[in-house]
């Protein structure tokens, strides 16, 4: 069975977006610094991105992430030319979506979205990427196998915290990989059950 990753870029003080989010700045004012590593020239950053996309067979995102990101993702989704299927957890599908897009809207919650994503992924991994609320729901439900965190060297001070509402139980992690560049420290951690 495929593994389920939660993959996110985050500031050192735990924010996955800066404050002041708008449609033009979905990561908030200055929040683009969180993902600068993905667009830089450092080969180590490029390798993390390339390996992550290559191992992904399906993506799960929340509706807010979809709404703020689809202008940049377009019909191909966050994996670009790889066109990996994206399952969007939502209460109601949008009125319109990109023609010939990779998006499927799932209204039944996180479990049906995961079932659809696993079926689409086959032997590859499922990546939950984007949306603090959706990521927190998967963590609380114990459905995440590994975390892939790209820690940006910035303190944002405000925005959307990633690990704020994950419940009171401790989630033990085992570090499996680390790669450090000027733009990010890439951490991989397995959830210990």
Query: Number of helix segments?
Result: 4
| CATH level 3 topology | Dihydrofolate Reductase, subunit A
Order of helices and strands: EEHEHEEHEHEEEE
Q: How many beta-strand elements?
A: 10
Total domains = 1
Helix/sheet category = alpha/beta
Looking at this protein, list some descriptive labels.
single chain; 193 residues; alpha/beta; Dihydrofolate Reductase, subunit A; eight-stranded mixed beta sheet; 4 helices
Describe this structure in words.
- A hairpin with a 4-residue loop joins β9 (173-180) and β10.
- Helices cover 23% and strands 28% of the residues.
- By secondary structure, the chain is α/β, with parallel strands linked by helices.
Short description, anyone?
This protein has four helices and ten strands.
Secondary-structure blueprint of this entry?
Blueprint (H helix, E strand, L loop, with lengths): L3 E8 L3 E3 L25 H12 L1 E7 H11 L12 E4 L13 E4 L3 H12 L3 E4 L3 H9 L5 E7 L7 E2 L11 E8 L4 E7 L2
Parallel strand pairs: 1-6, 1-7, 3-4, 3-6, 4-5
Antiparallel strand pairs: 2-8, 7-10, 9-10
């Amino acid at each position: 069975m495929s593994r389920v990753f939660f993959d996110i870029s985050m500031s050192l003080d735990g924010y996955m977006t800066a404050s002041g989010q708008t449609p033009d700045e979905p990561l908030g004012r200055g929040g683009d610094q969180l993902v600068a590593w993905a667009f830089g020239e450092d080969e180590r950053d490029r390798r993390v991105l390339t390996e992550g996309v290559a191992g992904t067979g399906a993506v799960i995102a929340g509706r807010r992430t979809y709404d703020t990101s689809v202008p940049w993702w377009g019909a191909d989704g966050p994996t670009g030319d790889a066109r990996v299927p994206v399952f969007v957890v939502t209460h109601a599908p949008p009125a319109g979506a990109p023609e010939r897009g990779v998006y499927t809207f799932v209204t039944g919650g996180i479990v049906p979205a995961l079932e659809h994503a696993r079926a689409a992924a086959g032997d590859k991994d499922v990546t939950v990427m984007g949306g603090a609320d959706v990521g927190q729901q998967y963590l609380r439900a114990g459905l995440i196998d590994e975390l892939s965190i790209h820690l940006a060297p910035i303190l944002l001070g405000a925005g959307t915290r990633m690990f704020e509402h994950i419940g009171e139980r401790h989630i033990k992690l085992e570090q499996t990989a680390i790669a450090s560049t000027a733009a990010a420290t890439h951490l991989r951690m397995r959830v210990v059950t």
